[in-house]
Amino acid sequence: MSKVRVAAFSISLDGYGAGVGQSLQEPLGRDGESLHRWILPTRTFKALQGEDDGTTGVDDDFVVQSFENLGAWIMGRNMFGPVRGDWPDDSWKGWWGDNPPYHVPVFVLTSHPREPIVMQGGTTFHFVTDGIEAALERAREAAGDKGIRIGGGASVIRQYLQAGLIDEMHLAISPVLLGKGETLFEGISLPDLGYRVIRHAASEAATHVVIGRTATEIPEAR
Fold first, then answer.
1. How far is the CA of 68 from the CAs of 5, 111, 127, 194, in angstroms?
2. How far is CA 26 from CA 73, 87, 174, 183, in A?
3. Complete domains list, the chain, with CATH
4. Are 161 and 143 in contact, with CB atoms under 8 Å apart?
5. Beta carbons of 115 and 128 less than 8 angstroms apart
6. Alpha helices by DSSP H, 76-220
7. What pLDDT digit, counting tens, does each position of 167-220 carry?
8. What tens digit of pLDDT does each residue of 28-83 get?
9. How far is residue 106's CA from residue 79's CA, in Å, rounded to a whole number?
10. Is 103 helix (H, G, I), strand (E, B) or coil?
11. What single DSSP character describes residue 35?
12. Coil, strand or helix at 83
């Protein structure tokens, strides 16, 4: 069965995955861009922007691993774009231009139906209105034996964690404080859900922590 994982998800030192006031101008909310300073200089990220330089080392290694053996993505509507409520039209097609970096089917969780959007490079955005398990079932069908990446935001990851559906999670803890925003772990006991730290490494820009399951069966969320 496909491994379900979170990879290269950045949080602040005080546990926020985005700041307050997410908008078209500030997709990650106030000071949210600071969470991702660790990834911006890496060779892999720069290659996605069409550049051929960049840093190697711990940070780049984790970026490379985050894209390995992926067959599908799942993300929340807030990660897909700033539009709220009913879709006013079909003009918004994501933050990433005509050729998004996914190159596999992407399943977007939403309460508002929309026809799939076929993009360049193999990315198709599918809009799922019947919940996280339905999105995961469709992602498994699309991914085959390859992995499924839960892209975020924080609320989507929380839902999949609480349902015991994430096999492995890589967090990049950035040395910044947001104070407010979208919290990742509030009210969640990872040990009670069957998770433990299985790997950690640090660079000058971030502390990388990988959390995985300790048992085949994940206890039912309380």
1. 11, 30, 24, 25
2. 23, 20, 18, 17
3. 4-82+99-213 (3.40.430.10)
4. no
5. no
6. 77-80, 132-143, 154-162
7. 999 999 999 999 999 999 988 999 999 999 999 999 999 999 999 987 544 444
8. 999 999 999 999 999 999 998 889 899 999 999 999 999 999 999 999 999 999 99
9. 12
10. coil
11. G
12. coil
3-class state of residue 38 by DSSP: coil
Token pair recorded at residue 169: 């999670």
Q: Which residue is associated with the tokens 């949210």?
A: 32
* Contact status, residue 172 vs residue 45, Cβ threshold 8 Å: no
Whether residue 28 contacts residue 180, with contact meaning beta carbons closer than 8 Å, is answered with: no
* Residue-wise pLDDT tens digits, 107-128: 999 999 999 999 999 999 999 9
**Residue 52: Cβ-neighbour burial (10 angstroms; 0-12, 13-18, 19+):** exposed
Name the DSSP class of 1: -
| CA–CA gap between residue 30 and residue 71 (Å, rounded) | 32
Which spans in 34-91 are helix H? 43-48, 58-66, 77-80
Residue whose token pair is 């069908």? 141
Q: Which of 66, 145, 134, 58 is nearest to 102 (CA)?
A: 66
Give the tokens for residue 9.
């998800």
How confident is the prediction for the chain on average, in pLDDT?
93
CA atoms within 13 A on the CB side of 7: 21
